[in-house]
């Protein structure tokens, strides 16, 4: 059993983890940005450390700052909650390298499930029941041909990213053609932002516009 756990998150997510730690008799360490200094998770934690200004890139997404607090507070493990660094391969690996337990998926699991098409392939190999769908689509023509085979409606989804980004339900060819171009533009824009800020845990090649998958919509 851990004696002390650092929560690398904020708000309701952090509060829920805090309540569980208290029930288990485990000391809690919270981190917060300057904008969150009066937040409930800060007030309820056994220890709380400010790790930077309001922008998440300078606080809750700063791996170095969070690990520095973990070491300074003698936390044995880090709970990332969800969002922020919870699926960041570099963060999970940095925790392992520092001898701190990452309470979450292993580095191999995060990497395997980071892209929708690889996650689908693994599910197929394991015999998990799936809706009819595709792997990566080469281009719009491939998308249209695949949709004709699957039957409408279909759902178009970018292989990289999360939170519903680039997800479009299409009921006919015209919608699919428009959606495909829209998702391509969106992923190209996000790739530029990700590369500029160096915030993505994946190599830029995984953000290519062709990284699209499609599945038969389940309704």
Task: Describe this structure as you would to a colleague.
The protein is of the alpha/beta class. Helix 4 runs antiparallel to helix 5 and helix 7 packs across helix 8 (173-197). The relative contact order is 0.11. The model is unreliable at 192-212 (pLDDT under 50). The strands form two sheets. The protein has a five-stranded parallel beta sheet with strand order 3-2-1-4-5, sandwiched between helices. A three-stranded antiparallel beta sheet has the order 7-6-8, covered by helices on one side. It contains eight helices and eight strands, in the order E-H-E-H-E-H-E-H-E-H-H-H-E-E-H-E. The chain is elongated.
Key attributes of the depicted protein:
219 residues; alpha/beta; Rossmann fold; Dna Ligase, domain 1; 5-stranded parallel β-sheet; 3-stranded antiparallel β-sheet; 8 strands; 42% helix; elongated
The string of secondary-structure elements, in order, is EHEHEHEHEHHHEEHE
The N- and C-terminal alpha carbons lie at a distance of 45 Å
What is the count of DSSP helices, taking H or I runs of 4+ residues? 8
Give the number of domains.
2
| Stretches with pLDDT under 50, minimum 5 residues | 192-212
Give the overall shape: elongated
CATH top level label of the largest domain? Alpha Beta
The SS-based structural class is alpha/beta
The percent range for helix content is 40-55%
Which percent band covers the strand fraction? 5-15%
Rg, please? 20 Å
Annotated CATH topology of the largest domain: Dna Ligase, domain 1
CATH homologous superfamily heading of the largest domain: ATP-grasp fold, A domain
Going by CATH, the architecture of the largest domain would be 2-Layer Sandwich
């Amino acid at each position: 059993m851990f004696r002390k756990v650092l929560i690398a998150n904020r708000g309701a997510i952090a509060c829920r983890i805090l309540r569980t730690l208290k029930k288990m008799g485990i000391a809690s360490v919270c981190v917060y940005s300057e904008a969150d200094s009066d937040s409930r998770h800060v007030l309820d934690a056994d220890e709380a450390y400010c790790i930077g200004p309001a922008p998440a890139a300078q606080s809750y997404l700063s791996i170095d700052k969070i690990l520095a607090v973990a070491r300074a507070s003698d936390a044995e493990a880090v709970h990332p909650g969800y969002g922020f660094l919870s699926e960041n391969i570099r963060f999970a690996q940095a925790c392992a390298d520092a001898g701190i337990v990452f309470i979450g998926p292993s580095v191999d699991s995060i990497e395997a499930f980071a892209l929708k098409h690889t996650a689908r392939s693994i599910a197929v190999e394991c015999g998990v029941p799936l809706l009819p769908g595709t792997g990566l689509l080469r281009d719009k023509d491939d998308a249209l041909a695949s949709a004709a085979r699957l039957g409408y409606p279909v759902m178009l989804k970018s292989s990289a990213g999360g939170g519903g980004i680039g997800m479009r339900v299409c009921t006919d060819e015209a919608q699919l053609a428009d959606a495909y171009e829209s998702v391509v533009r969106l992923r190209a824009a996000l790739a530029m932002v990700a590369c500029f800020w160096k915030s993505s845990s994946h190599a830029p090649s995984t953000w290519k516009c062709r990284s699209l998958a499609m599945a038969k919509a389940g309704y």
